[in-house]
Design brief:
- The protein is mostly helical and about 210 residues long.
- It is built from six helices and two strands, in the order H-H-H-H-E-E-H-H.
């Protein structure tokens, strides 16, 4: 990321090339920011995971388990979709560009090279020549996979946590419907059920906070 920033700011003069590099470069920058945010919020993430684990241990009714399982499957589907979409999209873009070949003039010598998605400042590594060109393309693919994984991880955590909360709220809605039925039937356990609903609602609110 830093060599590419130096390339854009110090080496490249063509505005069109600079603009074409800004898209992939911004992707790398956002991946770095996402990684930093995940690290800084690691304690909160760990607490949310423990909260989810406790919710699964507390559930007793089969109907509630089915509700939680249904929304957990939706969360996993969204996480899987994010992984496939992000990895395939960026990899296809990087590989398609790397498969092309351009001809450049270095001094009096004409040579060909594979362009990089994020070019490197030539004062660090001159990627115009082999094998530096091929090695840095492989490094770029590896870094692309890592950055994508960070972004996918952040999106997947958000999706799984949100769907878990939605499942808990759906359980509360079901409990309230049962409570109304019990009130209509003058069920003596209605007050105990109302207490359980209020306590669980407070627990769900703590999950959001």
């Amino acid at each position: 990321m830093v060599p590419c920033l130096l390339y854009v700011s110090l080496e490249e003069k063509d505005i069109q090339i600079k603009l074409s590099v800004m898209g992939p470069l911004s992707h790398w920058i956002m991946g770095t920011i996402n990684y930093w945010l995940l690290l800084t919020r690691s304690d909160d993430i760990r607490e949310c995971v423990r909260h989810m684990e406790t919710d699964w241990k507390l559930v007793r009714r089969i109907d509630d388990q089915e509700v939680m399982l249904r929304y957990a499957k939706i969360g996993r589907f969204i996480a899987g979709f994010c992984a496939v979409f992000m990895q395939s999209g960026t990899f296809l873009f990087v590989i398609a560009k790397a498969m092309t070949s351009i001809t450049i003039l270095v001094g009096n010598v004409t040579t060909s090279m594979h362009p990089m998605t994020c070019p490197i400042y030539s004062k660090f590594i001159d990627t115009r020549f082999s094998p530096a060109n091929e090695i840095m393309l492989a490094v770029e693919l590896l870094s692309c996979f890592i950055v994508n994984s960070i972004t996918v991880g952040a999106c997947s955590l958000a999706a799984v946590f949100a769907m878990h909360a939605y499942g808990q709220l759906s359980m509360l809605f079901s409990w309230l419907n049962n409570l109304v039925s019990d009130e209509d039937k003058k069920n003596e356990y209605a007050e105990q059920k109302l207490t359980a609903i209020v306590e669980h609602h407070l627990r769900v609110l703590r999950y959001f906070i």
